[in-house]
Protein: Stress responsive alpha-beta barrel domain protein
Organism: Zostera marina
Amino acid sequence: MSAVSSTTTAIEHLVLFSIDSSIPSSQIDSFLAKANSLKALPNVTHLTASPVYNPCSTDAEPFTHIIHARYASKEDLDAYSSHPSHRSVIAEFAPFVSDTVAVDWVVCCEGDQVAVRPGSAARVVLVKVKEEGDKDGILEVLKKVKSGSCREGKSVEVSFGENFSPGRSKGYEIGMLAVFSDVEELDDGLSEFADDLDSQAEMIDGIIVLDFIVPSPPAV
């Protein structure tokens, strides 16, 4: 995949799935394989489908799998969503999925950050703001997380933003994705984040926090 300039923007796309534990592992493996095959579609810049590694909040516990993708534009996201191959995968596995949450936001990518390296560990944070809540205050916390990681020279990529697809988000209005080089760095890298977000607790109506590992491509 070609590198992008430091000013390139992209669309961050996250879909969380809840798949019942009674579903045979062979069917789950088939779902992941077919979902990962969608990265070959012409409008997809990056896509991985994987199990949730660690649900870190109560609201995250029902979710078992995640798709993370990036697109160059909202138009590319729309083209992916309406592509027959994507629709076929969704239709085939819909009976096994009991719940989903999907969010999209605009992200600024630097250098070759459009693609996420296999083996990376990522934390997802989705925030549902109370009706009277201060959305700007929560965004400031996420901005602090991003600027702090850059200032301290950590090998972490942080993106965040306001969701622009409310019809699929179940009320989650703000998303953040922090990508670390491995699980050890993830465990150490967000120690101050929880305290910062706790300062906005009165404004938050719900929060999903979970981790996933970016899978390696299948052997050829």
Remarks:
- Confidence is low (pLDDT under 50) at residues 1-5.
